[in-house]
Design a protein that fits this description.
It is built from seven helices and ten strands. It is of the alpha/beta class and about 270 residues long.
């Protein structure tokens, strides 16, 4: 009796692992603005990739386009060319997935209490009930140390407290990306250092994705997990650097000072040849 051979088993090809898009991307981002003298190029073909939970710092001299890039990432101004994506989806304007904390202290509505200021965007977006908005506002304010100021009005707050409230307002909305435009630049040195420490602690706790603009090298090295260095006007990419996860205790350490010197050299030596 003959026995026929069983057909060889066939296997379907394994499905490719799904690629998780970055939290934020800018591809060949170019930004122009118009003056009486004509069109001026502010940013020239910059690429950015920000992974989930990363803290990317845009660093460069005044006028290099850092804040202009941030406004484009927020959707406040359109790109002249190139594209911006949040989790793989094109940015076409402002949205609750990206929230901005600015340098100016007076970002709060003066006729509303601190609690109401933080809860207000949630209510306007009609995402949650008044009770839930207040609860989220109180939780965010507790994280930035403002529980005692819930019922205070902005005029009663110091500059540092106003910035804490602005950060709480952004955190309460749970954005995909937090954008910060030199938020501590106008503060005195002690308050600035305290808020840097608070921001690092919040980033470790909440694991949010951050794009942070500064022109201070030591602040960039402290805050960032990666640095994107920009040339003088128009802003072009000079270099990128990953950093250690420094804390305030590391400021002044050999590793911190070494990276600070390296970044200083990249900014000033390379920029001179752009």
């Amino acid at each position: 009796m003959s026995v026929s051979a069983s057909p060889a088993p066939t296997f379907a090809p394994a499905a490719a692992a799904a690629t998780v898009p970055p939290a934020l991307e800018a591809r060949r981002l170019t930004l122009d603005y118009t003056t009486d003298a004509g069109t001026v190029r502010a940013v020239d073909s910059v690429d950015l990739t920000v992974a989930e939970g990363e803290r990317l710092v845009l660093l460069g001299p005044s006028g290099c386009g850092k804040s202009t890039i941030l406004k484009a990432l927020a959707g406040f101004i359109p790109a002249t060319s190139g594209s911006i994506l949040v989790r793989g989806k094109p940015v076409t304007g402002p949205g609750p997935d990206r929230l901005v904390v600015f340098q100016e202290f007076d970002q709060l509505l003066p006729w509303k209490t601190v609690r109401d200021n933080v809860a207000f965007p949630l209510r306007v977006a009609r995402k949650v009930s008044r009770a839930e908005a207040n609860a989220r506002a109180e939780a965010a304010l507790a994280r930035v140390g403002l529980t005692r100021a819930l019922d205070a009005f902005p005029h009663a707050l110091s500059g540092g407290m106003k910035q804490r409230a602005a950060i709480a307002r952004a955190l309460a909305a749970d954005p995909d990306v937090l954008l910060m435009d030199e938020p501590f630049a106008a503060l005195d040195a002690l308050t600035r250092r305290q808020l840097q420490e608070d921001l690092l602690a919040l980033a470790e706790e909440l694991k949010f994705t951050l794009v942070f603009v500064t022109h201070a090298i030591d602040e960039a090295v402290l805050i960032g997990t990666s640095l994107h260095l920009l040339s003088p006007h128009p802003g072009r990419t000079l270099a990128t650097r990953d950093t250690a996860h420094f804390g305030l205790a590391d400021v002044g350490s050999p590793a911190f000072e070494s990276l600070t010197r390296e970044v200083h050299g990249l900014l000033f030596d390379k920029a001179a040849h752009v």
